[in-house]
């Protein structure tokens, strides 16, 4: 695959991730800053490095599965793995300006 094709698949992944919302905060997980990185290889496998708002997050089991399932539903993706990390720990500073505006923090 070309770099352009990989970039396009990465953009598609970001678009689908933006349809997933944190159940406690009315902002999508991408704008919340929970997605740290998205990788796509030549075999059309995706790996997403993400965090949760806290280690005790009530959706710690279901949210990563939802991300995997939605990304796997993309026609250009054969497989997806989500890795959860708490390094660095998520803070409100990781939210986009859009998220902060939505939550009345600006």
Automatic annotation (TrEMBL):
Pfam families: FeS_assembly_P (PF01883)
Alphabetized Gene3D superfamilies for the sequence: Fe-S cluster assembly (FSCA)
Every MIP18 family-like domain range: 11-84
Protein's recorded name: SUF system Fe-S cluster assembly protein
Organism (species): Polaribacter pacificus
């Amino acid at each position: 695959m070309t770099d352009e094709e990989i970039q396009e698949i990465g953009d598609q992944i970001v678009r689908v991730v933006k349809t997933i919302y944190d159940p406690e905060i009315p902002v999508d997980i991408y704008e919340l800053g929970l997605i740290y990185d998205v990788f796509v290889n030549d075999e059309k496998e995706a790996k997403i490095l993400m965090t949760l708002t806290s280690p005790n997050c009530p959706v710690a089991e279901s949210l990563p599965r939802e991300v995997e399932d939605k990304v796997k539903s993309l026609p250009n993706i054969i497989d997806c793995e989500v890795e959860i990390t708490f390094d660095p720990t998520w803070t409100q500073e990781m939210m986009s300006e859009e998220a902060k505006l939505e939550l009345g923090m600006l």
